[in-house]
Amino acid sequence: MSSTSPRPDGTVRVITLGGTIAMTRGAEAGGVTPSLTGADLVAAVPELRDVAHLTVEDFRRLPGASLTPEDIAALVMRVAEAEAEGVHGVVVTQGTDTLEETAFLADLHHGGDMPLVFTGAMRNPSLPGADGPANLLAAVRTAASRDARGHGVLVVMGDEIHAAGQVRKMHTTSVAAFVSPGTGPVGHVVEGVPRLHGRAVRHPCVPLPRDGHPRVEVVTATLGSDGALLDALADRVQGLVVAAFGAGHVPASWCDRLEALAAAMPVVLASRIGTGPVLASTYAFPGSESDLLARGLIGAGSLDPFKARLLLGAHLAAGSSRAETEAAFASRR
Hints:
The protein is an alpha/beta fold. 26% of the residues lie in helices and 22% in strands.
């Protein structure tokens, strides 16, 4: 662990997981891989020493695609330890491939008031206009802000402050890839000052897993699909999320199989669109949302399929009852 010069108004810990923000090219020709340490990232932004006392912890050095729920559970425990030590805020740097999911999963388990801010980069440090240094500076400024306390987990990218429950990566390469489609950002960093103009709804903290994470998969409805993937799931998963058409619709040929699966495990009905809620009673044809809910599926509310998967997995891992799991999704409408 290393540190920069002290500042009296609190400590911010930077915890690194790897990702594009920490990637460079090796000696041989080819693409970039995670290689920079947290100390390297901090040293590239001298303005950080004017924001807060910083400590740095290299926790993982992985591309975002290789992170696991177990990594995030371990991270949340480290964050809780930091809060107990009196750290004012924590910034997590990681790859953007999974940032919207890891931030959401951390938000499910982070029960403290300490600001926990995720950030990353769309351009690696070797590219012109690399956005990592600016994102790190904005994230540390947000984590150091007293106004950020009690907001749950935040994501800071491009001087926008997003709630973990709303943010999504909506472009593969743009530096403006992260947006909150349903609500917009909860704040901005303006002239170096975090300005939060909204507060995300905080949901009850889900206990960390007792015995690891269960297997929960997502099956997506597509034109003409006969649902063959559903036949292989009954004995292989503990939970299922259906990424349905529109407001929660699937082909009629899926209905009986989904009803059988819902009798054996929690099956959550989400929309593959990713923005807007699953309905409850507008349509009544076989495979409609009202038909599927009557067959025992659980509506995902406004959660996209990927966040719905994490919420379901977290409650399964915590040993939550069916009623508790349904209530958790009902609160996300």
